[in-house]
Amino acid sequence: GAVSGTFSRFSVSGLTAELDDVAAAGDLTFDVSGERPRLSGVLTTGTLDLSSFLGQGGGTSSGTQQQGWSDENLDLAGLKTMDTDIAIQADKIIIGDIELVEADLSAQLTNGDFNANITSMQAFGGQWAGMFGLDARGDLPELDIDLTGETIQLNSALSALAGLDALSGLGQLRVDVTSRGDSL
Questions:
Q1: How far is CA 128 from the centre of its chain?
Q2: Which sign, positive or negative, has the C-alpha torsion 134, 18, 122, 39?
Q3: Which residues lie across from 84 on neighbouring strands?
Q4: Geometric angle at alpha carbon 31, from 4 and 92, rounded to 5°
Q5: 159: which residues sit within 8 A by CB, 6+ positions away?
Q6: Quick one: how far is CA 142 from the chain centroid?
């Protein structure tokens, strides 16, 4: 891409980048003049596989599958290392067994407070919209999720999200979660 600006604030326009199997294009601005570095811009990408970043890759070293939720404290210190304001359009986002297609979202991170506004995405055969928030500024992290899906294939959605496979058909699915704590 074309770089312009100063050493403390510079922009890259017409950026094309690759990291492992992820390719992205867009325009970004880096500002390192403040208390925390700030990254802002617009990116488009093909397939974005987040599974390994979220602990979804590989099994346990002993070969046995872990049962239940982990009691280990979440390490969210990285959320306070920089600020971001990014708009992302992805052909596909993969999180474990879940595929989000044609995702259009914006994400902001300010001193440990992460918010993603999901304008639209397709998953489980239907159209979704909503928000995801993770606030790590206080003593205990807070998680807020508010998503609504229209014309969802209930069997695949409930199987992937909750391990239930007793329902079939199409329906509306609303996920509204508020949680507070330092472990899953």
A1: 14
A2: positive
A3: 39, 109
A4: 90
A5: 165
A6: 16
Phi, psi of 80 (to 5 degrees): -105, 5
Q: Cα-atom radius of gyration of the chain, to the nearest Å?
A: 18
pTM of structure: 0.78
- Residues 6+ away with beta carbon under 8 Å from 74: 141, 182, 183, 184
- β-pair type (22-31, 38-49): antiparallel
Contacts of 151 by beta carbon, 8 Å cutoff, 6+ apart: 125, 126, 127, 170, 171, 172
SS3 44: strand
pLDDT tens string for the chain (184 positions)?
Answer: 999 999 999 999 999 998 877 889 999 999 999 999 999 999 999 998 877 765 544 433 344 445 677 788 888 888 899 999 999 999 998 887 788 899 999 999 999 999 999 999 999 889 999 999 999 998 899 999 999 999 988 888 878 777 777 778 888 889 899 999 988 7
Cβ neighbours, 10 Å, residue 75:
9
